[in-house]
Amino acid sequence: MATRLAHEAGALLLDVRRRDGGHLDAASLRAAGDRSAQEFLAAALASARPADAVLSEEAADDLARLEAERVWIIDPLDGTKEYAEGRSDWAVHVALWERGELAAGAVALPGRAVTLSTDPAPEVPSTRRGSDEQPWRIAVSRSRAPAVAENVARVLPAELVPMGSAGYKVASVVLGEADGYVHAGGQYQWDSAAPVAVARAAGLHASRLDGSPLRYNDANPYLPDLLVARPELADALLAASSGSATDPAPAVRSHT
């Protein structure tokens, strides 16, 4: 279900961009995409899994999910800026949390006609990177690569590769186009739940920057930092990232 819904929401978003991209400004196109994908996913989940709770970036959170055994954690459009710019590095996230753990997930990359899922789990390609001639590639934010990533690049050494959405950056590691993804400075659970589920299914390392576990369906959805990496690179990245400051957790969003 996660795979199907992520794929279908992605197809819908492509239709919205084709239909409205020529006459809406960037802000309006981003809003139209967010709204269309949220409405589709909310209706599909309500119909197919009415007893399950949902945590979405684009919907109010009444915290009823904290009493639920199954919670869908979704980001209907991850990378709205890239989406509105006509780029391909945006994604749709659909994950299922069940009894304390991520149980399933899918990340659609509609701009590339690719959907990655926990079932079947992707196979991460082998790589020959890690030398002076071909350094490790670390995916980072297009707009603000964190200072910790700059430190990682010096220590390994590594090449920093700017990309759009969080889901796309994790997907780049799964697809073998990057070797790790380092993020600090603020994210929410919907930014990483589905990508982390897919990355773990593929055998990749996924944790906080200090190596501690990523926890989902907490009352405060803020989850400020993330490290996803090839297993052979994880220890080096954790060491280079250790002691890095992250943003203090903001207050829980208003639940209205």
Please trace the helix and strand order, writing H or E for each element.
HHEEHEEEEHEHEHEEH
Strand content: 15-25%
Number of domains: 2
- Provide the low-confidence segments as ranges: 244-256
CATH class of the largest domain: Alpha Beta
Q: Do you know the CATH architecture of the largest domain?
A: 2-Layer Sandwich
Helix-strand makeup class: alpha/beta
Mean pLDDT figure:
92
**Strands, total number:** 10
Please list the strands of the largest sheet in the order they lie side by side: 1-2-3-4-5
CATH topology of the largest domain, by name, is: Fructose-1,6-Bisphosphatase, Chain A, domain 1
Instruction: Report Rg.
Output: 18 Å
Identify the CATH homologous superfamily of the largest domain.
Fructose-1,6-Bisphosphatase, subunit A, domain 1
Report a brief summary of the structure.
By secondary structure, this protein is an alpha/beta fold. The protein has helices at residues 2-20, 26-48, 80-84, 147-155, 166-174, 189-201, 231-241; strands at residues 53-56, 70-78, 91-98, 101-109, 114-117, 136-141, 158-163, 180-183, 205-207, 226-229. The chain has 2 domains: 2-117, Fructose-1,6-Bisphosphatase, Chain A, domain 1; 136-241, D-Maltodextrin-Binding Protein, domain 2 (3-Layer(aba) Sandwich), CATH 3.40.190.80.
Structure, explained:
The protein has helices at 2-20, 26-48, 80-84, 147-155, 166-174, 189-201, 231-241; strands at residues 53-56, 70-78, 91-98, 101-109, 114-117, 136-141, 158-163, 180-183, 205-207, 226-229. The protein has 256 residues and is α/β, with parallel strands linked by helices. It folds into 2 domains: 2-117, 2-Layer Sandwich (Fructose-1,6-Bisphosphatase, Chain A, domain 1); 136-241, 3-Layer(aba) Sandwich (D-Maltodextrin-Binding Protein, domain 2), CATH 3.40.190.80. It has a 5-stranded mixed β-sheet with strand order 1-2-3-4-5, sandwiched between helices. Strands 7-6-8-10-9 form a 5-stranded mixed β-sheet, sandwiched between helices. It is globular.
